């Protein structure tokens, strides 16, 4: 029996996705398939023309909402030039599972590794099995009726997953990304993590240490970026991680960066991060207004806690990058100016080293999606490329005209960058 040729690709727009990083999701998919099926040849590619040239048997395309049009274009080209089965995965189809474009044969819903493996096995068996027995897929039957086979249970022990297949990921060796968890304990109104991952789950400390050692041995990175929504499970496990990193002297071989949430930070946590060699912390500050913060996140978030993180980091000589969100429905001109004042104050005091401010976009699966849908701004049949320019097409604010809002933003950001 000939080996099944599987190609994987992340659909993204190089113009808008300037912060793109290699897809760890595809890396996990590749390594899991290779571990559990000996009769496959898996390649992760970035060029659709190379995929067509390869004439694969199966193509997996992953995409976020703003790139679904790109994914559809890829699928149509593959269908036109090859006989490949084409499968869609990623955040968009997970948020809208009954919105599978007709050019795809299957969509993967939920955690993809085991589902994709079972789909590969099914296709290799020349479709003798019934695809409805595979949990976690959507597909069109012979009458063009969309069938959803139901949700698959998530992995409860993430340590069963092999490390992602970084050998095929096109990344700069100076910074290598890794995950210590899946999911987020929070449920912010603008974020779809809960829709994608449900409750958070964590790799064990030993698994994390093993992966760090593997990365250092194979890639010798300057920085390992813990790319989780929120880094570490609790203080106890953070202490254990710190102890093992120090015992193995890993912090002398690379530096680390991580993502935090300000309302869980205290002096002990920051001291531990400093001790293991964390040089940069990134967090979502979101707003300089407590009123807007409560709307976007919850009552635990506050400007004061954001400032406390910045103050502690400065004291311990840890650099900080923060992201902000503008254009929330309830945001007033005063709220918006408070955010810019917060940014300016902390840049001037040397406490904020990097900052980015994003327009609020109502991505599918978030509370903002349902809010925008009620206002008629979004729906399942819209042009999803609008998410690449939310300030133009998906304006949500109820207190300022779009023209006034954009004028304020332009003026304030120009002033900050002087």
N- to C-terminal distance: 64 Å
CATH topology of the largest domain: TIM Barrel
State the total count of DSSP E strands.
Answer: 15
CATH class of the largest domain: Alpha Beta
Compute the average pLDDT.
Answer: 93
CATH hierarchy: architecture of the largest domain: Alpha-Beta Barrel
Provide the domain count.
Answer: 2
List the main descriptive attributes of the protein structure presented here:
TIM Barrel, 418 residues, six-stranded parallel sheet, alpha/beta, 38% helix, Rossmann fold, seven-stranded mixed sheet
Describe this structure in words.
The protein is an alpha/beta fold and 418 residues long. The protein has 15 helices and 15 strands. It has 2 domains: 145 residues, Response regulator (Rossmann fold, 3-Layer(aba) Sandwich); 210 residues, Aldolase class I (TIM Barrel, Alpha-Beta Barrel), CATH 3.20.20.70. The protein is globular.
List the SSEs and their pairings:
Elements: E1 4-10, H1 24-36, E2 40-45, H2 48-54, E3 58-62, H3 68-81, E4 85-89, H4 91-95, E5 106-108, H5 112-124, E6 137-140, E7 146-148, E8 175-178, E9 181-182, H6 193-197, E10 201-202, H7 205-219, E11 223-226, H8 235-247, E12 255-260, H9 267-275, E13 278-286, H10 290-296, H11 303-315, E14 319-326, H12 333-348, E15 354-359, H13 367-374, H14 390-393, H15 402-416
Parallel strand pairs: 1-2, 1-3, 3-4, 4-5, 8-11, 11-12, 12-13, 13-14, 14-15
Antiparallel strand pairs: 5-6, 6-7, 9-10
Helix pairs in contact: 1-5, 7-8, 8-9, 12-15
């Amino acid at each position: 029996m000939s080996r099944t040729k599987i190609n994987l690709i992340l659909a993204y727009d190089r113009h808008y996705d300037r912060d793109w990083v290699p897809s760890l999701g595809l890396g996990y998919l590749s390594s899991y398939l290779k571990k559990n099926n000996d009769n496959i040849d898996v390649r992760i590619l970035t060029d659709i023309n190379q995929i067509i040239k390869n004439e694969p048997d199966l193509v997996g395309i992953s995409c976020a909402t703003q790139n679904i049009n790109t994914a559809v274009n890829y699928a149509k080209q593959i269908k036109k030039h090859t006989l490949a089965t084409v499968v869609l995965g990623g955040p968009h189809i997970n948020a809208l599972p009954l919105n599978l474009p007709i050019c795809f044969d299957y969509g993967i819903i939920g955690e993809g590794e085991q589902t994709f493996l079972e789909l590969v096995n099914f296709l290799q068996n020349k479709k003798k099995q019934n695809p409805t027995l595979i949990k976690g897929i959507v597909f069109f039957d012979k009458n063009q009726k969309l069938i959803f086979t139901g949700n698959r249970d998530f992995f409860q022990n993430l340590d069963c997953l092999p490390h992602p297949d970084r050998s095929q990921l096109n990344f700069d060796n100076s910074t290598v990304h890794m995950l210590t968890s899946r999911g987020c304990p929070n449920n912010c109104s603008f974020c779809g993590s809960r829709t994608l991952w449900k409750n958070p789950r964590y790799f064990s400390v030993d698994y994390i240490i093993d992966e760090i050692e593997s990365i250092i041995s194979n890639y010798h990175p300057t920085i390992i970026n813990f790319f989780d929504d929120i880094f570490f499970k609790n203080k106890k496990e953070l202490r254990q991680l710190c102890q093992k990193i120090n015992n193995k002297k890993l912090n002398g071989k690379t530096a680390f960066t991580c993502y935090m949430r300000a309302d869980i930070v205290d002096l002990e946590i920051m001291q531990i991060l400093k001790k293991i060699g964390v040089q940069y912390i990134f967090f979502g500050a979101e707003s300089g207004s407590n009123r807007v913060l409560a709307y976007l996140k919850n009552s635990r978030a506050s400007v004061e806690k954001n400032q406390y993180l910045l103050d502690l980091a400065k004291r311990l000589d840890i650099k900080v990058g923060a992201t902000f969100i503008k254009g929330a429905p309830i945001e007033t001109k005063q709220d918006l100016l408070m955010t810019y004042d917060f940014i300016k104050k902390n840049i001037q005091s040397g406490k904020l080293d990097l900052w980015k401010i994003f327009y609020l976009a109502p991505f599918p699966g978030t509370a903002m999606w349902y809010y925008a849908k009620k206002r008629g701004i979004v729906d399942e049949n819209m042009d999803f490329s609008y998410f690449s320019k939310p300030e133009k097409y998906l304006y949500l604010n109820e207190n300022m005209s779009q023209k006034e809002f954009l004028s304020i933003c332009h003026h304030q950001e120009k002033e900050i960058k002087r």
